[in-house]
Amino acid sequence: MNTSATIINNQVEFLHFLKAKFPLYHLSNFFFRDLHYGIIDFYSRRKQKISYGEAEHVARVVAQHFEKQNIFKKVNQQGWVLLYPEFITKKAS
User: Does the model's pTM come out above 0.70?
Assistant: First the structure.
């Protein structure tokens, strides 16, 4: 099973999954460990097993892909800013 390809090929579904699990908004901070555990949960919900170490590797591959797609902007070794306008919050009127 090519776990990183599954997420990359379904990145919109995966991002919406993360948004339902974490406070994920356009221009919000997102951390590596949240991505890592999100991947574990994503596969668990699909009834597929993924080891802790494999999920960590997949998180690194997916993060690099999201950086190249300008979805993640690296802030430091452990986090990014999310650049995903679809997740903009609306102001209360």
Answer: yes
Give the DSSP H or E segment for 28: none
- What is the C-alpha to C-alpha distance for residues 22 and 52, in angstroms, rounded to an integer? 19
Architecture of domain 3-87: Orthogonal Bundle (1.10)
Q: What is the distance between the alpha carbons of residues 82 and 84, in angstroms, rounded to a whole number?
A: 6
Check: CB of residue 39 under 8 Å from CB of residue 62.
yes
pLDDT tens by residue, 34-88: 999 999 999 999 999 999 999 999 999 999 999 999 999 999 999 999 999 999 9
Strands 79-82 vs 29-31: parallel, antiparallel or unpaired: antiparallel
Find the angle CA(5)-CA(45)-CA(20) to the nearest 5 degrees.
90
